[in-house]
Amino acid sequence: MNASTPQLCATVRTFAQRLSSTRRGARLARLLAVERLTAWEMSPRVIERAEHVVAELAANAALHGRVQGRDFLLALTLDEAAGTLRIAVSDTRGECRPTIPPEQDPDDELGRGLLLVDALADRWGTEPRPPSGKTVWAEIDQHGEGPKAVSGQSGSQCR
After folding, report:
1. In degrees, to the nearest 5, what angle opens at C-alpha 124 toward C-alphas 120 and 125?
2. If you ran DSSP here, which 8-state letter would residue 98 be given?
3. Cα dist from 107 to 1, 65, 113, whole Å
4. What is the pLDDT of residues 27-41, one digit of tens each?
């Protein structure tokens, strides 16, 4: 008699939405992400971290990555087998890669958002998005205790 071993189905869930490169689009990105992650029954702790990361990356896309008449793209990927949520925000300004300033005055109003992403995400970085754009991504581990090593990418900073 041949008994088969039960196989676990590894599920990868995805969500993607184009949004206008405006403050309203950035706000909608945050709301849609929370709705989707809640529907995927993610833990409230992961949802809260993801909400802040999406808010910052979408705001940066609308403010620094904006090209008149061009949208930005929000993409969420949940790899249940790996226990990783990947947040990716793509815009059309590839020449402006976000970086965390090496030193920052406590009174500076710009540059704090990436410090938040750096603190909340387990990993983050940027990658080119041909023909002329970039994707800023962040990953949050579902099963970890919290953010660990981070990997910001270098490049020219846009303000």
Report:
1. 150
2. -
3. 73, 24, 14
4. 999 999 999 999 999
